[in-house]
Amino acid sequence: MRNIVIFGAPGSGKGTQSALLVEKYGFKHISTGDVLRAEIKNGTELGKTAQTFIDKGQLIPDSLMIDILAATYDGMQPCDGVIFDGFPRTIPQAEALKEMLAQRGTEVAGMLELAVPDEMLTERLINRGKTSGRADDNEETIKKRLAVYNEQTAPLIEWYEKEGKRHAVKGYGSLEEINAALCTVIDTF
């Protein structure tokens, strides 16, 4: 089983590239953002709790995310691989994911990092907000989200490097170029 973490700042193209990889390889896809937005839309207790953190540009507590992730992952089995999009976001989450997968006799095959400069990310997110209507894609929230990413999430780059699982890919250029670079890495797993 090829469990893959697709990694990058908000707006780096994780969701877009994940969809292309799902189509090519037949992997399952867990987007914590999509899962959380569905919970919020459905007005669940988890959704209401999550919304209070999102409104402040903060990360969702690990315990909530790990419970959601394990249930979602288990519901997708059996499959050839799973792409984790938007998780983990902190070192404790990465450790919890490693433990959760080990309990199931598997592991993360690799972390694919989509590297994109902050200026490009801001522009992408503002444009996405105009076309998608996502309330969290406004300039003030974007700045907070990028600050949280740089402070709390970016340290995962070094963590996965030490695990020998980090694979950095240039996250800008054409969709096809980015996807081809990702597929080249995945084909080595």
Secondary structure: elements and pairs:
Blueprint: E1 2-7, H1 14-25, E2 28-31, H2 32-41, H3 45-55, H4 62-75, E3 81-85, H5 91-103, E4 108-115, H6 118-132, H7 139-153, H8 155-162, E5 166-170, H9 175-186
Parallel strand pairs: 1-3, 1-4, 2-3, 4-5
Helix pairs in contact: 1-9, 2-3, 4-5, 6-7
Explain what the structure shows.
The chain has one domain (2-181): P-loop containing nucleotide triphosphate hydrolases (Rossmann fold), CATH 3.40.50.300. It has a five-stranded parallel beta sheet, with helices on both faces. The longest helix is centred in the middle third of the chain and has 15 residues, at 118-132. 58% of the residues lie in helices and 15% in strands. It is globular. It has helices spanning 14-25, 32-41, 45-55, 62-75, 91-103, 118-132, 139-153, 155-162, 175-186, and strands spanning 2-7, 28-31, 81-85, 108-115, 166-170.
Task: List the defining traits of the structure above.
189 residues, alpha/beta, Rossmann fold, five-stranded parallel β-sheet, globular
Summarize the structure.
The chain contains nine helices and five strands. It is globular.
Q: Assign the CATH topology.
A: Rossmann fold
CATH level-four homologous superfamily name = P-loop containing nucleotide triphosphate hydrolases
Approximate shape: globular
- The number of distinct β-strands equals 5
Task: Output the CATH class name.
Answer: Alpha Beta
